[in-house]
Specification:
The chain has two domains: 45 residues; 85 residues, Winged helix-like DNA-binding domain superfamily/Winged helix DNA-binding domain (Arc Repressor Mutant, subunit A). β2 and β3 form a beta hairpin. α2 packs across α6. Helix content is 70%, strand content 8%. Strands 1-3-2 form a three-stranded antiparallel sheet.
Length: 159
């Protein structure tokens, strides 16, 4: 019996079906992320962490505290600092001490960094669009509803 046939069988324990679903979601997430990492590396000579940091900074109208940036990205301050240093070296980001507290470092994209990110974001969106081209409005609505439901049930268990 194939996995897809077996997985839809109501004879299979629900816990096993849930585990298979988790593994399938994980596999899809990892393969998509790996594809996008390679896409950014080959086509733009950049990394996914640089893209993520630039995206977080691009969303903000004002400079962000380095600690806020790392919290938003769910990475350590050290990891965020390393990526920001590289962006700064390339002229895409700028760090400045906070006017209120000189120990606090603020970070923002430069004009060059904003232009770079906007080009990168458009290419990233187009690549994701290609990867998920088989999904129309109906399927996307269904997936989003299911993911919101799962997120809600996770929040209930964690809260």
């Amino acid at each position: 019996m194939s996995e897809s046939t077996h997985d839809t069988s109501h004879d299979t324990p629900l816990s096993q079906r849930r585990l298979r679903t988790w593994i399938r979601l994980l596999r899809l997430t990892r393969s998509t992320e790996n594809h996008l990492r390679e896409f950014l590396r080959v086509n733009y000579d950049t990394t996914l962490p640089r893209f993520d940091v630039a995206a977080a900074l691009h969303r903000e109208a004002a400079p962000l505290k380095m600690s806020e940036l790392s919290q938003r990205l769910l990475v350590s301050n050290g990891n965020a600092t390393t990526v920001v240093e590289r962006l700064e070296k390339d002229g895409y980001a700028r760090r400045t001490p906070s006017a209120e507290d000189r120990r606090v470092v603020m970070v923002e994209l430069t004009d060059k960094g904003r232009a770079w990110f906007e080009e990168l974001a458009a290419a990233h969106e187009a690549e994701v669009d290609k990867l998920f081209a088989s999904l129309g409005h109906g399927k996307l609505d269904t997936i989003r509803k299911m993911l919101h439901h799962l997120e809600g049930s996770q929040d209930d268990k964690n809260g």
